[in-house]
Amino acid sequence: MSDCIFCKIVAGEIPADIVYENEQVLVFKDVNPRAKIHLLMIPKQHIVSLAELDESHAALMGQMMTLMPTLAQGQGLEAGFRTIVNTGKGGGQEVFHLHIHLLGGGELPAFG
Ligand code: AMP
Fold first, then answer.
1. Ligand 1 geometric centre to CA of 62 (Å)
2. Catalytic site residues?
3. Is pTM beyond 0.70 here?
4. Which of 50, 72, 75, 93 suits a disulfide with 86, CB 3.0-4.6 Å?
């Protein structure tokens, strides 16, 4: 997707503070952090949101979730962390390339 900001990060066309990368997945620091640690994990392939997933994405999504513990540990988040996936306008999604927020460090506001 030529107008997708996260695809441009994957392509190296705009800079990002990359924390982890493999063939399918990229993790970088959120440019507007809402916690001491605030990372975004994205699939390198353009998927709009969680609402677009089907069974063909099962291995990819499994890989993303199972990367989380190691990623969190690497950020010093042994005490715990929060993951958020905003989906669609109604879910507060602003960038329409699937991403998982990883937040932690210090006090997080109560949720729900
Ligand atoms: P969401 O509301 O779930 O779509 O969140 C999108 C997130 O992307 C926000 O937390 C933004 O701060 C973050 N963001 C937008 N552009 C960039 C960028 N170029 N580099 C890093 N994070 C970004």
1. 22
2. 99
3. yes
4. 93
